[in-house]
Predict the 3D structure of the following.
Amino acid sequence: MAAFVSRAQATGLRPERAGAGRRRPAGFTLVELLVTLTIISLLAAVLVPTVQKLRMRTKSSVIMGDFRTFAAAFDTYAQENGTWPAEAAPGAMPTGMADRLNQTAWMRPTPMGGRYNWENNQLHFGTRYRAAIAISATSASPLPLDVNQLLDLDRRGDDGNLLNGSFRIGSSLNPLFVVQP
């Protein structure tokens, strides 16, 4: 009857030193690291544009929601008082609207920069609008020109054309939501 002989016994080495001749690397090989880095880079390349689009859509949704909410409040004011509120500076609460508008939402910088601005009987590119809400730059809140953001806003809340409809480009290339032409 043959007895089982381990490799360590056959070579005369002690069991703890059986694999001592070959050393297993302690870390990753360069190829493994490069493959991992490539996979991470490809995932980032796919995810970054998607995240940017989602951020832009989120901004557009918030701004269009604000425009609609504010327009309804101004329209209610005009129905009850027979006139529109007086002109106000960007970020300033229009007279008579403190009880009708969420002051925090109106006075904060918009998600795309700038501040909301009530415009009564103002001229934009040769057209006079009786009532409109603009987003205007201030010293504390600049308004960067982002054409993609403007187009997304128009697609989400209007007709997709920045030259007509309720949402359009006003003077100084400011976004403009027309409440009453």
The chain has a mean pLDDT of 89.
